Amino acid sequence: MDTDECTLEEAIQKWVSVLPRWQKHAVSLLNEHATLSDAQVDEVYRLLLADEGLSDTEELPEIDVFTMAGGAEEGVPKARFTLAEMRSLRNVNALPEKEVLRFGKALTIVYGANASGKSGYARVLEAATGSSRSQRQVLPNVYKQESGPQGAEIVLADEDGEQCITTWTTGQPCPEMSHFRFFDSDAARLHVTAKSQFDFEPSSLAVFGRLCSLITGELDQKLATYISDNSPENEFQDDFPGDTKAANFVRTLGCDTDLSELATLATLSPKEKKRIELLGKNIDRLGASGIDKQQSALQTEKVAYQELSEKISDLAAKLSDDVLTDVRAALCELASARSTAHKLGVEQFSRPELNIVGTETWRQFIQTAQQLAAEEAEARDKPYPAEGDICLFCQQELSDTAITLVSAYWEYLEESAEQALNKANDRVQELKETLAALTFDLVSSDKKVAALLEDRDPQVLRAVRKCLARLKVRRCAIVRLLEGAAIAEPPVSPPPQKKELDALVQQVAEQIEDLNATAVEEKLTQLESEQTELSDRKRLADIRSRVKDFVAKHRSAAAAETVQTKALNTKSVTDEHKRISRRFVTESYKQRFRHERERLGCPLPLGVEVKGERGRGKHWLGLNAEQECEPSEVLSEGEQCAAALADFLTEVNENQRSAGIILDDPVNSLDHKYREKIAKRLAKEAATRQVIIFTHALDFCYFLKREAEALAIDCRCHWVEQLDTSTPGAVSNDAGPATERDYRKLTEVERAYERARNSRGEERERAIRDGFAAARTHLEAFIIYRILNEVVTRFEDRVNVKSLDGMVHDKGLIKRVIALHGKVSRFIRAHSHSDIYQAAPPEIDDLKEFLEELRGLQADFKRLGKAHKN
User: Fold this and answer.
1) Are 775 and 749 in contact (CB under 8 A)?
2) Which ranges constitute the DSSP H helices of 483-519?
3) pLDDT bracket for residue 584 (50, 70, 90)
4) Average pLDDT over every residue of 766-778
5) SS3 sequence of 65-102
């Protein structure tokens, strides 16, 4: 279907029908909702991922693209409002807060001289609409050091006349006023010099720009996040610092990684796994640190053998035949001492009743008794025994005979024979203790030397154990000999195994010397290289699943980057928008712009240039010339202003959403000719939409009023004044500067008369004088518009010759006008008066009488006019 043969909606529907599934769904949602929720954006995003193979397929209900309604606009109310009034301004320039500015439904003129404050009101409306190209700043009162927030109340009326109040504050446009368009000299300059986005396209075309915004905004951001989330840093390479195949593979991980190579490298056979263990042991044995450890271990082993040999030799020496000779000598000495001691003192203690006197037991008893007596004497600080003491054993009082006997015991013990006996006993005891302290547990299973011998030479270990066992038996035999229990000769002492142990020491010393050789370095390097290669492959096998996940993520990220470059490219959307809008928008805009230029008397060689960007059209004014140049470089300031206004009116009329326009001094740099044509064009615009004009040009006011009257549209004119040097912005609603056309009828005189009737005192006197002033202006307008039939009027640059035919010349009527003009002059302050009139101010009856005379004058003129036509 060609766009020349279909409607705009049909062209859009045809375009949507061939879009990818995710774009169809996006258009469907954008067509239905002003703003997409996060959940709706996620729907479109999930479909995008599914359509591009980045996720599983998403289920989606059927989309009927042929029910498109054109979409909704965020923040734009459906109802169209007109401005009713603006009030309660706060901190806006130096404008008073209590002023109220009212607006008519058709044409409203706000007149004010320069610096009167009228532009302050205009800027508030500009900021409230948010539609101006220039967006001038609304300033607070710069003459005050502090000021609160800026704001104003704006009263609007809907199509049924129902009013609502919206509040404007700085930086917050009013959504209800979004349908209004604003124009001023700053905006005019931008119309000529800058590119502007079409904001007047048919609402159905808005889907192109909104789709582009969705694509380049939320979807692009989500896809960028997806790419970032699926582009993790290569955290594996730090664990593979070497130059192995596995390390090189890990360092180059990415979306192009060959996973079959991963499978090859990360799979180890059982033989390779065992090889890793064996390599570790061999490297420990051959490695620099392993050699040190082995040397240390061998040195420890050597010392252990040496110490064991020394300990066995020591045991053998302490159980040698020489020691046995010493034992026998000690026993002989003990026997001799006992015999001598018995002969020298024991007989004195013999009794028939006692059989053990003189025995070793008896002697030990006496020695113990002596020791106990010595401790008792020390405790009581008195010798024992003494008279009156008791027996330490039976605790009976000692007789003198008993004391003598005990003293004899002590003397016996002090004799030299007994001392020799004690010495012999001590020698035997010393030998027994020395033999008892000998240790034979040198190679038990918990001893390290036993483990070393078991590894080194188990036969030597068995020989050592046998030797130690025989030495222990010899020790026991000698001890029994000392105790007097043995009669047989102790067994012969075995050889101490010194030769065998010394051979082991020599063997270990040779191994230590062998470990100092450097021939192992080359082999060690080979083993370490093989170990690193296999270890890296094993480490790669351990992280195989993580590596596969890493590669999968990077492949997803790479695919997403392709999607971001291709699927999220808005060029096709922009191209389609350009193609459709060229037929349905651009040509219409160009035609209307040409028409507006002609209506404003601006037949300049200007055209409209259009370019599409991201689904939205932008336009600007171009000069049709042989050489490339900007309109601002060629056109005068007045021509630029007229061209800008034509462009502005084109935008307004092409935009179906435009409800009203507000213009601030639109004819500043224009001459009389342009002002009249623009007034005519704006008055005609006021017949279809609300038009509000701020101006300081009195002739422009006149032209606007004249055209409004000719078109029979309502026109309200207000005056904004500066009451003193510091208080601008005083508003006089419906009291704009009067022109002769306003006084062709007696309306103002009648209003003054009614005001005088309903007031008293000074206010009545003021109303009466206002009434006579209005009457005088009415007479002057009567001369221009009735008697002279508008042959010559103010602000007109020509004489209307055709109006001469309609002139009514009656001498009597003219004399009546002259007389009435002289009479009314007595009641106004514009002339000096005689004393008699100054003393008597005008009364309401005077105004009433004069009003009746004016009515009679009008009636007589009408009769003459009818007679003249006949």
Assistant:
1) yes
2) 498-514
3) confident
4) 81
5) HHHCCCCCCCCCCCCCCEEEEEEEEECCCCCCCCCCEE
- For residue 390, the 8-state DSSP code is B
Helix (H) or strand (E) holding 381: none
- In contact, 72 and 33? CB cutoff 8 Å: yes
- CA 276 – CA 413 distance, rounded (Å): 83
Strand ranges (E), 475-582: none
Residues facing 151 on adjacent strands: 90, 169
The DSSP code sequence of 686-755 is TTTSEEEEEE--HHHHHHHHHHHHHHT--EEEEEEE-SBTTB--EEETT-PPP-GGGGSSSHHHHHHHHH
Considering only CA atoms, give the Rg of the chain.
65
| Nearest alpha-carbon partner for 439 in 321, 318, 305, 301 | 318
Tokens of 759: 């007031």
Which range has the worst mean pLDDT, 394-398, 545-549, 630-634, 747-751?
A: 630-634
Span between the terminal Cα atoms of the chain, in Å: 66
Residue type, 30: L
Does the pLDDT value for residue 147 go beyond 90?
no
Q: Nearest CA to 663 among 704, 710, 610?
A: 704
Name the token pair of 111.
Answer: 């007149």
Give DSSP secondary structure letters for 593-623: HHHHHHHTT---SEEEEEEEETTEEEEEEEE
CA–CA dist 505, 510 (Å, integer): 9
Element (H, E) at 549: helix 544-566
Rounded CA separation 50/559 (Å) = 12
Q: CA 608 to CA 357: how far, in whole Å?
A: 154
Considering only CA atoms, which of 749, 784, 753, 775 is closest in space to residue 830? 775
Q: Residue 78 is encoded by which pair of tokens?
A: 């459906």
Q: Give yes or no for a contact between 88 and 165, defined as CB atoms under 8 angstroms apart.
A: no
Instruction: Give yes or no for a contact between 661 and 688, defined as CB atoms under 8 angstroms apart.
Output: no
Sheet holding 163-169, edge to edge: 101-102, 82-90, 151-157, 163-169
DSSP for 357-378 reads TTSHHHHHHHHHHHHHHHHHHH
| CA contacts within 13 A on the Cβ side of 807 | 17
- 109-125 pLDDT, tens digit per residue, is 998 888 888 888 999 99
Residues making up the chain, counted from first to last:
870
d(Cα 496, Cα 140) in Å, to the nearest integer?
Answer: 117
